């Protein structure tokens, strides 16, 4: 009986306050309708950067806000292209805005961290697409063009490139937003400047006006700094890692017959056997958000399983294990010693559960996967790294890796 | 066995990123220790502005961050006073920083909204004081001076005025922070400017250098705009109101013998009879945060009680009832008609549960309660509103009130 | 022979960096051409806020930059109106952008301060119009619509209101820009927010969407703070006053037969007798800028006339006379005494030349001259001050005045 | 008689508004006194970035403001070091603040561009030192420590490093300030973050806490972007080049007996023969500022010398010659052809005067000249480029060069 309440007419907000981009306008009715749908409202309860707020307390912003921000940048980008003489129909505008609005709709609790944990072999893009199709049914096909663009099947390539490439509005928004909310100014990019340099070349491909070369290089370095200073910060990497281990442990314990307190829907997934997604899976997945995981971890602090309770206390009380970082993998003997100390300190024999090497790697600028093109004054496009003006791009084409070893804080004290 | 894990040595962060104030330094060990205590870590899970993020999606910031920010401003204020020749000892500095750090420690889930709902007749300041005393025991009396300052018992009055007055660092931080995270620039104040104008007059009272008069007036108008545009925005007022009604309803249903799903600790309070606070009350209260309420509301959407499920859906799916606002109380006949329509529309007879008048009032500048004083060049202090330079203060000494009527959205459609 | 160099093709910049608004685009060829004309380039050498940089060292920005900024805000405003369904032709867009671009083109050195000093009875709007007509000839009538709009003769009233009213893009830009460059954050307004609330009502009049009421009130208070804190700051008022006195004195000395060093064109005006403007007047006026006045004052520091040299030293060495400020006119006896002391101190008998009362007055919101209208949801327009939501507008409809007495600094020392 | 007016007591500003750093405090009397001295006030009339405002219209800020900003950063840096336990006496604080305040006092009109033009073989640092000594006499030796620090003779090396090294407060201020005023956000650095990472190691050398590595790399890339995007922008390089050529030409013409209009002091230098600096030289140099050059160029637009008038028109009317840029020197044949076209177009035979190659080169991070050191947790210092955390520093140790060819705009039109 109440299931349809959300379908009733709403107080249609036409303008949303965004501290990052200023006002966000919602120029089309269908965008409203998607925003108001419970699938999308759920994103209000999914953090954009997971447990990063343990390290950067301002980073409490949500996927919901990011999706709106990216939609706004898409609008700005399309307006800019129009001012440069590129024809874009209203239908295309709607499609592109809807596609980017929905691009994260398949994210589960804690986004990337728990991807595949609840529903094996389901990553968020697969789920996003599935949910887009469900919504498309509800909205009588109004999302078809958006889905086409999202999948890269639409003939004008730049729409898909604005949705998903090395310089898409998704990245522009999340870098800008994450830098804003974390307060890490090294990651600050000027999206207005970058977007104002966007263009479309003859073949319908997204390019950057040549004079924007430094804005793009600044974007690439800012992104690299954000990765190593924020997303791959050793404590961030650790927190994300713990989340995964906690869920793994919980599923393992449940499989061993232990009864773990949890909300109804989370419990469903802890007990669910590997299989392809059913309608019930989808329904229940859409009820889950960060809240369910936090709530469970709070009560699991008192679990009789030492490992589970230890990790949950670590996270909830922000009393995190120790980490050391290196540019090379750790010496197995060094790791072995940490395990031994852990066993001794806690009087346990599965200390290896508490000692782990975490690896993070980054390719700052990928010349293979949709390279960035500059549009020269003579109308020719050229790869960024081949421009005579580039200063750093040519240097950023190699992967960097870092190795993080984590072990209980207490044992390090016994050592030092 | 694991209860004391948090007491073990921590990864002592000395600098915390804050997008509002830049870096926050933690200059004293005892400040760390309090920050790392689970009582304080709990504030990470209590939003600074409750459900306001339903209206301002950026407003997901926490009491934890606010408390750190206020502590930082206290440090800055004391440094400024020292540069003006006011002697402040290190003990006083510690005391003042600890006091403001802990000033919100007694906040329960959703702060003000649910104050008194879980534990009747307990407001957050009473609880904060109680928890400060508990912490003081744990920290062997190191918080005594802080508590004295918090209570206004310390002989140098300006410390308490910096903690709690019309121009305290609490207000400076929350206005600045809430304006930052909501994106409502009308509430933006320049805390650096205001603090740089602070001074202490002969009797040890906090005053503002006369030339700072416009910064103060700007602060007062910014605050007024924040109240009417953000905190008392009709939808904000409504969301807060719904939260209260939901908890009231839940307690009522429980008292009628209904079994409502909820986490263990929330359940405890739903069943708790009125009485003075026991040790168990305090313990369990400290386990609660916003998360418990959201988790409960998510499951109560499916309650068999129409009122409870209706409200919870309203909040969780952000499908809020309609509101109209007025400078005068609503005509009882108008209200009566809304109730009638509600009964008709839903086929219920307790429609009056869904129609409410909410009142909000504000005194922009209170000349009675700790008025703001200016320090003139001749060394005399003078009330802000009596200064010959003031432009608006004298006009902001009267209360303004607004009345908000809420009723189900659906019935308004049947009308129009 | 070289006179026409500027008419040759230029390096057509399409984007100009503006720290205030981000990038400024120049979407039409004719806008370029006007910008590149020497009449307009001259504005690069006319400061936006005259000698205010003596008090606010950042305030070195120019009329040139302001004119570009205002043109940019006009573009943004028109785009916003279009998104709300108001039809605006490309010709109208060009006209409105040209009109605001040229609105200050008649400003002479030090803008308002020296208005009428060089050419009596010529204020800058009269000159602007005259120069617009001259340009219109050069540009073969392409500026006709702009001139019509500037004069308020175009039938769609909102264009003129965007150019010149209590809430025009001129004010929006200068408040924003002056606050930015002075660093006086109390004057900071969010132009994006204000513009996004603009609308046009049935009769073609500029209105503000009702929900923007606080943004408008914030604009009015910010403007008031800027006047009293910056433009009418007692030292700013003094500096502007000295400039006028210096030019007056120079003209007087020249009329008495003294030979004062000055550039050729400034000399022309010092010697020019009162009369209506000739073609030579116009030509020479267009050669003048702040530079000529500063250059002259630098050499006049060594004039044999005590008064002139004293004032020029005051300004050039920033060794300004003393000022006291009051809400009431000064007592004639008090003034008399200052004159007496001045005569004694310097051993002169025209000390009254160095003692002056300067008056400044402001009406924060003028309900007579183009009041601000709100557009209610029901489509009716209502005066801002009559809205039920307004908090301060109704209180800002009265004039405030301040009186500043200035006298030589040295004499105040002999007294105290 | 009036020469000492500036020595009389002044309206001692204790706080100066700075849009870049917020308020600047002046904590010591002697700092005031130096600021009020005409030597320092002269810097108000010397632009920080010369003719760059022809390209970036916001860049009208002055050396005066920069010197105050750098002084403020020095204060902040010393406070930070104190909070980290480094002892710094009040005398040292005064010395360091005075030294940075005066570091640019020897700049002549248009700073670097015209260095050595007026007084051969005198660069600004030599002149700054000479003027510091003169001031030191006037201030009875109060500047001795400052001069010692400026010259690097003080035993605690970090004071000099804060004044002049690859990471000094001079660079921090000018990068931040120039980015702010130009609006080129790629050059934006967060000085607060960088300063908070400063430290002093055992030997008294300036180092950066290891965790600040990305802030430093961000600073180095931002600086590199500022050079190529702003300072070495081809049009910036051209404008600066024209200024030099104009002065050279003027001196040449004067040496040939031509009478060029100019203010008295500029005329003096145009006529001055090469020789070591006399007292009169110094006196007259201190009367000169940007104003004198602009004023002269305005009148030289009408010079009978074609070359001089052409260049002055180019600058004053912002009708600049054409430029092309390359990573390699230009082919002599290509240059020859441009000269030929120029001769043909203008009907002159000294067309080579109007065709020039300008070279700019940059070493982003100089590992030889005062390399940047990181302070590791273990207390050891390590070169930035050798840190395992560095991402880009190791790649920025090579020089980059660009070649700019300029020739009259008109001839390029005859070609195309």
TrEMBL record, chains A, B, C, D:
InterPro entries according to UniProt: dGTPase-like, HD/PDEase_dom, HD_assoc_2, HD_domain
Entries under SMART domains matching the protein: HDc
Name this polypeptide is given: HD/PDEase domain-containing protein
Domain HD/PDEase: 59-184
CDD domains: HDc
Organism: Chryseobacterium shigense
Molecular function terms, GO-annotated: dGTPase activity
Gene Ontology BP, a term: dGTP catabolic process
Alphabetized Pfam families for the sequence: HD, HD_assoc_2
């Amino acid at each position: 009986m109440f299931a349809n309440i959300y379908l009733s007419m709403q107080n249609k907000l036409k303008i949303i306050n965004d501290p990052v981009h200023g006002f966000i306008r919602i120029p089309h009715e269908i965008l409203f309708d998607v925003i108001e749908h419970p699938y999308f409202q759920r994103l209000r309860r999914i953090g954009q950067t997971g447990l990063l707020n343990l390290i950067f307390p301002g980073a409490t912003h949500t996927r919901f806000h990011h999706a709106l921000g990216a939609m706004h940048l898409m609008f700005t980008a399309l307006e800019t292209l129009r001012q440069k003489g590129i024809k874009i129909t209203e239908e295309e505008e709607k499609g592109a805005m809807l596609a980017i609005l929905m691009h994260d709709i398949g994210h589960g609790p804690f986004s990337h961290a728990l991807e595949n944990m609840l529903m094996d072999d389901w990553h968020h893009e697969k789920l996003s697409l599935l949910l887009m199709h469900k919504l498309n049914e509800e909205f009588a096909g109004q999302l078809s063009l958006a889905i086409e663009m999202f999948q890269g099947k639409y003939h004008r390539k730049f729409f898909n490139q604005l949705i998903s490439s090395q310089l898409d509005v998704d990245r522009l928004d999340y870098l800008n937003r994450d830098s804003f909310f974390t307060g890490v100014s090294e990651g600050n990019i000027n999206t207005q400047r970058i977007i104002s340099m966007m263009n479309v070349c003859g073949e319908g491909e997204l390019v950057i006006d040549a004079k924007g070369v430094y804005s793009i290089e600044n974007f690439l370095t800012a992104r690299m700094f954000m990765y190593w200073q924020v997303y791959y910060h050793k404590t961030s990497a650790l927190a994300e890692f713990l989340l995964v281990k906690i869920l793994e442990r919980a599923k393992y314990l449940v499989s061993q017959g232990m009864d773990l307190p949890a909300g109804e829907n989370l419990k469903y997934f802890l007990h669910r056997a590997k299989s392809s997604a059913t309608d019930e899976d989808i329904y229940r997945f859409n009820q889950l958000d960060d809240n369910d995981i936090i709530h469970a971890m709070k009560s699991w602090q008192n679990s009789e399983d030492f490992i589970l309770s230890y990790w949950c206390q670590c996270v909830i009380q922000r009393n995190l294990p120790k980490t050391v970082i290196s540019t090379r993998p750790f010496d197995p003997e060094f790791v072995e010693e940490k395990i031994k100390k852990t066993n001794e300190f806690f009087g346990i024999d599965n200390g290896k559960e508490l000692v782990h090497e975490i690896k993070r790697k980054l390719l700052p600028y990928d010349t293979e996967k949709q390279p960035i093109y500059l549009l020269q004054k003579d109308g020719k496009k050229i790869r960024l790294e081949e421009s005579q003006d580039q200063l750093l791009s040519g240097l950023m084409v190699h992967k960097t890796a870092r190795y993080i070893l984590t072990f209980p804080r207490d044992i390090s004290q016994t050592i030092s």
